[in-house]
Every structure is written in C-alpha cells, then in structure tokens.
Amino acid sequence: MGTLRVNLNERSYDIVNEAGVLHQCGAYIAPLLRGKRCFMVSDTNVAPLYGDTVLHSLADAGLEATLLTIPAGERSKTPEMLAWLWEQMAQSGATRTDTVIALGGGVVGDLAGFAAATMLRGVDFIQMPTTLLAQVDSSVGGKVAVDLVAGKNLAGAFYQPKLVLMDPETLTTLPDRVFSDGMAEVIKYGCIWDEALFAKLERLGSRPAVMGEITDITTACCDIKRQVVEQDELDLGIRMILNFGHTLGHVYEKAYHYETYTHGEAVAAGMVAAAKLGQKLGHTPAGTDERIAALLAAFGLPTAIEADRTVCETVLGLDKKNQGKTIHFIFLERLGKALPVAMDRAALLAQL
Ligand code: NAD
Ligand code: GLY
User: Fold this and answer.
1) Contact in structure between 109 and 138 (CB atoms under 8 Å)
2) Residue 54 has pLDDT above 80, yes or no
3) Does the Cβ of 254 fall within 6 Å of ligand 2?
4) Per-residue pLDDT averaged across 220-228, rounded?
5) Where does a domain end: 139, 173, 207?
6) Same domain, 265 and 181
7) What is the rounded distance in angstroms from the CA atom of residue 41 to the CA atom of residue 191?
8) Which end of the chain is more exposed for a tag (fewer CB within 10 A), N or C?
C-alpha cells in the first residue's frame, strides 16, 4: 500500500493506492463527505466491471449513490455530456453537500471533475481511477476539462479532488493497448525525474513484470506528480515538465485526426523526437533517444511517427504553453532530469 498526501493548503488530499481498496472504498470516502449523497460517474466498460463493488461499499458505509453511466471513450468528453450530467444531478435534486465520484479512466475523471467543479458552483469530488494513465497522471493535480470542436481540453478548470483512491487490481482488466498507453506516461516520469525508475522499467520490460511491482511503480509516479503540482498547482512554471513528449505528441495526434494513434502512442514518439532534437541542439547526451526508444518498444509503443509540416505549424501555434512567439519545449538534460527551454517558435519549427 502507498498513501501520499498532496499538500495544497486547504485543497490538500490523500492518494490511497492499495490492492482491493475498491471493496472498502465507502470506509475511506464516508468520513470526508459533507452529506450522504453521491453521484458516481462511470462509463459503459467500467461500470459493469466495478460499479457494483463500489456501490455496495458506499451503501455499507451509509452513503446513497446514484450511478451515471456515460458511453466509454474520448467522444464522451464533451460539453453536451457535461450538460447531461448537470441535468441528471439537478433533476435528482442535487445540493451543495453532495459529492461526485469518478470511477473510470481519464475521460470519466476529467468530465466528472468538471461537472463537480461547476455543479452548483462546486461540489466535492473524488477520483477513483481505473486506467494506468489515470492512476499515474490524470487523477492527480486537479486538471478537469472537456474537449471542444476546436481542440482537446480547451474548456476546463483546476479543481482538486478530496481523495484519490486507486486499486491496482483494476488494471488487470485493461486491454493491452490501454495499458501501454499508460506506460508511456510512466516512462515519461522516469525520463523527466527519476532515472532509477527508468532503469527499473528497463529491467522489468513487460506488462506482467510491471504488474508484479505495480503499486510501487504507480505510487512513485504519483509522488513525482505530487511534488510538481505542490510547486506549481496552476501550471505557470515547473508543471510544464510533465509535458515532455507532449508538444510533438499533440502534433501526431492531430495529424492523424485523433484516430490512428492513442495519446500515449503519440507521446511515446514525441519523447523520442524530443530526445533526438535535444541531442541535435546539444541539450541532451547522445544515445538518450535510443534508450527511450528501446524501453517504449518493449511496451509496444511506437518510437517514430511522420507528421505533415502544416499540422506541425498549426499545433505549435496553439500550444497552451506559448507566450507570444516563444514556446517552452521540454528537453532532457539527461535521463531523469527535464530541461525546459524557451525557444522562438519559428526556430523550433526550422529544427523539426
Ligand atoms: P479512457 O478514460 O478513455 O479509458 C480508456 C479505455 O479503457 C476506455 O474504453 C475505458 O472504458 C476503459 N477502461 C477504463 N478502466 C478500465 C478497466 N479497469 N478495465 C477495462 N477497461 C477499462 O482513457 P484514459 O487513457 O484513461 O484517459 C485519457 C483521457 O485523460 C484523455 O481525455 C486525456 O485528455 C485525459 N488526461 C487528463 C489529464 C489531467 O491531468 N487531467 C492528464 C492526462 C490525460
Ligand atoms: N498532465 C499534465 C498535468 O497535469 O499538468
């Protein structure tokens, strides 16, 4: 078991990571709530697998929970689905002492979190992440959002949960591709912060081996994210290092209309490209790209993706980290240490 405390003054919360915790979630959640009523948001894949376990545990703890199930997948992370959640809660007579619980991957967490942030100007929120990506990244740090036609995550908020409760056993039912998607983010933490984690992943080299040490690995990732978020909750500085591989990753996702490559696959190729560029510009030691590529390949992730130059220009122009003509690109000073560099956007494009 690993329990971490995210220290954000009055917005502080625990991350509990424990095998089997889903069966006891009510006992963790009930003492934190202002009222007895919860709206549990889940999706059409996760609700049939884990919904009853959670609902039983909540009922055993004296809580009344209403299950709101959304269709699985990124297409549900929309303003329309957000409005559907608002309506469902309003029609059930929601009050400010109610709580929203997200049981699912990053889509459920981001959408339910934004619903919690906005319902009645804010009700309490609890994250119960069930994908690897959600356990190591999206459930921690308070970014909640929906996608717009103009781009992903363009409408959102910073809204910290009251608790993150994760059960590593939920990862056993993930399809391989979804597991690998999360591995891209796990590998990212090794790249930007923790060379020992990177080396451990190299040694493990497969999903079954990683699952043998999964609680330690996901706790290590959450601890890195905790430290970053504690320093920069509102993403104005160091938090940008979590974007390693993401700037070009977004280019690849967009170039293939978000259909061919998953987010993790695009980020994987983006990390290798960022390492190569860092080597070319003298920021990153030679051979870093090869080590990253070998580790990604071991987990079935792509190490290079072609993208059209026009898409590159468009996406780099829209990057949320832009300030005027400057873009903050995340390089590696070495494996285990990120190096943000402010670059002229045109100069960056010329190098790609
Ligand atoms: P997801 O929520 O779509 O889950 C992936 C798939 O796995 C879905 O089909 C889901 O139904 C299924 N699934 C979930 N848990 C399962 C389980 N235990 N067993 C079997 N199937 C299961 O995707 P994701 O990769 O978890 O999250 C991606 C989303 O997260 C994106 O929208 C991205 O923008 C967002 N994100 C947010 C942050 C943040 O800081 N808020 C960070 C990274 C990513
Ligand atoms: N996923 C990046 C962040 O939380 O900042």
Assistant:
1) yes
2) yes
3) no
4) 98
5) 173
6) yes
7) 33
8) N
